[in-house]
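During the no-cost extension, the postdoctoral fellow (Dr. R.K.) reprocessed legacy sequence entries with the updated structure-token encoder. One reprocessed record is reproduced below for audit purposes.
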Amino acid sequence: MSAHKILFFILFFAFSFFVKAQQNQGFTVSGQVSEKSGQIIPYATVMVEKTDFSMISDENGKFVFKNVKPGRYTLKITAVGFSNLKKNIEVSSKDVNTSFQLENELNELQSVTVLGRSATDKVNKQAYNVTAIDAKKLHNSTLDLAHALDRVSGVRVRESGGVGSRSELAINGFSGNQIKVFIDGVPMDNFGSSFQMNNIPINLADRVEVYKGVVPVWLGGDALGGAVNIVTNSKPRTYVDASYSFGSFNTHRSAVNAGYTAKSGFTIEVNLFQNYSDNNYWVNVETADLNTGKYFPNARVRRFHDKYRNETAIVNIGVTGKKYADKLLFGITVGENKADIQTGARMVTVFGDRYTRGNIIMPTVKYQVKDLFTKGLNVNISGNFNLGEEQTVDTVYRKYNWFGDYKQYEGAGAESSRTLQKLRNNNGIAIANITYSLGERHSFMLNNTFNTFDRKSSDELYPQSLVYQQPQKSQNNITALGYKFDYNEKWSTSLFIKNYYLMREYTRSYNPSGNAGDIAYQKYNEDQSLQGYGGATSYYLRPNLQVKASFEKTFRLPTPTELFGNPNDNVEGNVSLNPETSNNINAGVSYQTSFNTVNALAFDLNFMYRDASDFIRTTFNNNQNKTVTLNQDSVNNYGLDGEIRYSYKSRFTAGLNMTYQNLRNMTKYEPEQNYVSYYYKDRMPNIPFLYGNADATVFFNDVFKKGNNLSVGYNLLYVHAYYLYWPSQGASKLDIPEQFNHDLNAVYTFADGKYNIALECKNLLDNKLYDNFSLQKPSRAFYIKLRYFFTKSK
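Re-encoded structure tokens follow.
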């Protein structure tokens, strides 16, 4: 054989071997995952459908599959907090490199109004009347979640004092327990005093959704007038967000939020926060000298027994980005608090030694998976159980005045009622949420929320007392089924039905013999089932003009605190409460426009009507030292809330919102009365009916150095005067005066937001502020906040 033939065969076999090896080895498929904005999404799950190829992208969102044989494939990308994405690729004669951009997944938000703020979301087509605060814009402020909400149109947060004081949320006239509060879709009904709205730092939240009126099915529960959903940043990432603030009245707040996600999907999340304040702010009071009796009608004094502290830790450990679970986290929330009690329900009563303390020990579980068994079937299950305790301590037999002077009495007494009572509420919640999408237009939702409460009471001062051996139990279960239809990105309609179930177990005392001191207890076990329904629709007349309407017949079940009371908060129980019901109607319009390319305007106007029966309202008990809830037979409410917002480039933003609500007593005949009630058609007492906010912020870029930014902002809160009692009650009706509260702030960020300094002045003009009659809120205060933020995903 000639040399050239030998060479030919050698080259032929070498080439054949190379081709065969290349076919066996296959090609490389690589890429990167990011948001629409271009920000990297680390640790996303990338799968090649109908193959064994699956992996987690690295901290830079990159992934690589090797040895992929030629053919056509479908890549599926999933990440917590983003919509799933599929992309078809073809592997033929070379390596493939591609990129993926995921969209943020906003749970049925109809409109997103950023408090800080950007324009409302023009493309989201859901029909619910909702405002979302972009909490990230407020992470440098000293605000807690409650005070951030207080700046939203239609919302009022009422507090009984300073840091850690009892607060109540109101939306369009409905308040307190009529409004449900959630964290990532989980009701906060059982979180206790160590974890409440006005001690949660704003840095815990990614955004806060405020639903006014009809609440979507996936937020389970029995909200009558609206809901607030605190959404934390659940995207797997490695980050640290630490802050500390110090201010007037010896107030200290700190928070550390951190997370780590490994390539394997192992995830750990840690949230720590604490609050402390002496709350020794100035108040104007009526008081008298305990020895001489000299009367001081308008004394200016400091609060002297109002210290508050709490510490809370939330830890979650598990996995994310797995085939069997997009998220599976086991966690525990632990914390404690101690709060001095300065006053009773009104400031005419003053204490110097009485206090409460409590703790939270709450194991939790969260499980989320998309496309379970079949495409479009998503499951979200969560649960928690609070094993914590609450205690009131009142064992010092003294009488105090507002100067801090006291008289000591002999014997075993107290300032209010002698007690060391401990409450363990054994309160648990379990939620299952299932959604199924049938194509792009049809989706179905099923939500079930179960709540159990079994209070165990004890008092070491009265260990044999039969009072603390009586059952105080309740259970409720709410099941909701919904359907949503979307058409052409312009029209969206949702329909739903709900079933409400309530069981309560309690006793009433009676005297079986008629002899003094002879007490026995009769046990009661009651249950009831109720049905509600509703719907919401939205239509975009133009890409920037949306109209929407919603209706529901809804119920709100009495809470355990309303039924059985809470001595820690001066709340008296009422086991006779009926569930309240309301027919709710909402209608609204949103419009956004811009001109000259640098100016933007956004308008929102919403109308609401409520027709409520057995309306649960709060009033004082006969001694006016506690509050108690009772049913009002018929209450109507109609009103408006609106907002106007203007922005110029990224240099300036300003806004104004106002809320008016006409909440009227429509109970014509009171029980056991044959004449028309004196208060028929009266405005409901102790509820603000006209209030609003105005704000403005100026932004300065590249201050002192490129990338360093400064913002200076102002906020005004206005609340019109309203009556404590019925307006027809004459001179004794009393009033909560007109309120004006001015706040100033300045925030300086440098190193591209890694380091941040904020200065704030609250109640700039030192006005007298009241959310509740005679319970004066803090005087002028100054605060500074230092914040450090680091993330690998930047």
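The CA atoms of residues 82 and 253 lie 32 Å apart. The first helix runs from residue 3 to 25. The remaining legacy entries will be reprocessed before the final report is submitted.
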